[in-house]
UniProtKB/TrEMBL annotation:
Zn(2+) binds at E186, H253, H269. The keyword Zinc-finger does not apply. Its EC number is 4.2.3.4. Its cofactor is NAD(+); Co(2+); Zn(2+). Binds 1 divalent metal cation per subunit. Can use either Co(2+) or Zn(2+). This is 3-dehydroquinate synthase. NAD(+) binds at E73, G74, E75, T76, A77, K78, T131, S132, K144, K153. Residues 183-329 form the 3-dehydroquinate synthase C-terminal domain. Residues 69-181 form the 3-dehydroquinate synthase N-terminal domain. One of its GO terms (biological process) is amino acid biosynthetic process. Its main location: cytoplasm. One of its GO terms (cellular component) is cytoplasm. It comes from Solicola gregarius. Pathway: Metabolic intermediate biosynthesis; chorismate biosynthesis; chorismate from D-erythrose 4-phosphate and phosphoenolpyruvate: step 2/7.
Length: 365
């Protein structure tokens, strides 16, 4: 009997690459690193020190040295201080342009590692090895890298594509439940903006969608990666002259990122995006773009997998202030991704302030 091969989804972008999904995906690592690299750095959080060390040992040989760079857990790694620490390690180890950085971890780690790879010597080889659901379906794919500043999420960064994305889904067995739910928020986002079958799968069997080793989550991962890969292949740099383009992947993020900032980056990203999608659905519902059933579908679906759908009242000025630095904002004009119908994303540009506060009232009762 032969072991099953990982599924491969192509990202047909400026420099096409594959997302390998499944047991054995990591076997691609030596080929992606290539024969020229004499040095490899694995950037990882403390929790993943043991798998990082196993990878380091596998990659060491007579002509190549491999280093582990341990960074803080989660969002606390996405700072200029931690990026500077990584640059110092690369400098002291003599990393040149033929050497390679690997990001091993959740989305926070791969955002940081990608930014370090993009900026060291203005760009060295980069491979992502996402270990969280959110990392696999979203953060590790598509080349958005970056760090936070006190003023907001991902305010400093670069578009920098990896050579490959290796998703060994067996690692999801150790992922805490709340992290799995957080990742499911981005999966559900893909359902609302592009692939409604995702929504049917979650509604039909929410428990199966949260079973890390089951076939339903495996199908959801592939569907979400397909959505992301197709969108970024068509509009890598989020500057589409034709339609919504990559900005559709920002569904729920305008308010979501503001919630993260108001909560000083202690909120799970997916949880904040879930609230943000409910807010965006209210914007579309109150302005007559979608019917009440589709607005309610957002709340019901997110609630059934244990995600938050409401936020505390009384902080609108702080949320509004944070949204002014959203990357979709142009001048003083806020812009939101909304739906005109299921899987028909559109941009709501410069909405009436009364519409915004009415939508906030709906989600903060
Ligand atoms: N670049 C993009 O396109 C993009 C897309 C979506 C989200 N993001 C970013 O991703 C981040 C969120 O990523 P996340 O949800 O993966 O969170 P995370 O990276 O903060 O990880 C959450 C926690 O889970 C741990 N963890 C990861 N894999 C594990 C495993 N297999 N077993 C046990 N613990 C594990 C991490 O070490 C961390 O402590 C946010 O910063 C968000 O802005 C980026
Ligand atoms: O890949 C994209 O494009 C996205 O918008 C995906 C989001 O899920 C992700 O959180 C991204 O980091 C947000 O990007 P930002 O440009 O709003 O910081
Ligand atoms: Zn996101």
């Amino acid at each position: 009997m032969t072991a099953s091969q990982p599924e491969r989804l192509r990202v047909d972008s400026e420099r096409p690459y594959d997302v390998a999904i499944g047991d054995g995906a990591l076997d691609d690592l030596p080929d992606l690193i290539g024969a020229d690299a004499q040095r490899v750095a694995i950037i990882h959080p403390t929790t993943l020190a043991s798998p990082a060390e196993s990878i380091r040992k596998r990659l060491m040989n007579d002509t190549r040295e491999a280093h582990c760079i341990e960074v803080p857990e989660g969002e606390t790694a996405k700072t200029s201080e931690v990026a500077a620490f990584c640059w110092r390690v690369l400098g002291q180890a003599g990393f040149t342009r033929s050497d390679v950085v690997i990001g091993l971890g959740g989305g926070s780690t791969t955002d940081l590692a990608g930014f370090v790879a993009a900026t060291w010597l203005r760009g060295v080889g980069y491979v992502t090895v996402p270990t969280s659901l959110l990392g696999m379906v979203d953060a590790a794919v598509g080349g958005k890298t970056g760090i936070n500043t006190d003023e907001g999420k991902n305010l400093v960064g670069a578009f920098y594509e990896p050579r490959g994305v290796l998703c060994d889904t067996t690692v999801l067995a150790t992922l805490p439940d709340n992290e799995l739910r957080s990742g499911l928020a981005e999966v559900i986002k893909c359902g609302f903006i592009a692939d409604p079958q995702i929504l049917d799968l979650v509604e039909d069997d929410p428990a199966a969608a949260l079973d890390a080793s089951g076939p339903v989550l495996a199908e959801l991962i592939e569907r979400a990666v397909r959505v992301k890969a197709d969108v970024v292949a068509a509009d890598l740099r989020e500057d589409s002259a034709d339609g919504v383009g990559r900005e559709m992947l920002n569904y729920g993020h305008t308010l979501g990122h503001a919630v993260e900032r108001v909560e000083q980056f202690t909120f799970r990203h997916g949880a904040a995006v879930a609230i943000g999608m409910c807010f965006a659905a209210q914007l579309a519902g109150l302005s007559g773009r979608i019917d009440r059933a589709l607005v309610d579908r957002h709340r019901n679906l997110l609630q059934v997998v244990g995600l938050p759908t409401a936020y505390r009242p009384g902080v609108w000025p702080e949320l509004y202030d944070a949204m002014r630095l959203d990357k979709k904002t142009r001048g003083d004009r806020l812009r939101f991704v909304v739906l005109d119908a299921l899987a028909e994303p559109a941009i709501l540009s410069g909405p009436d302030p009364a519409l915004l506060t009415a939508a906030y009232a709906e989600i903060s009762r």
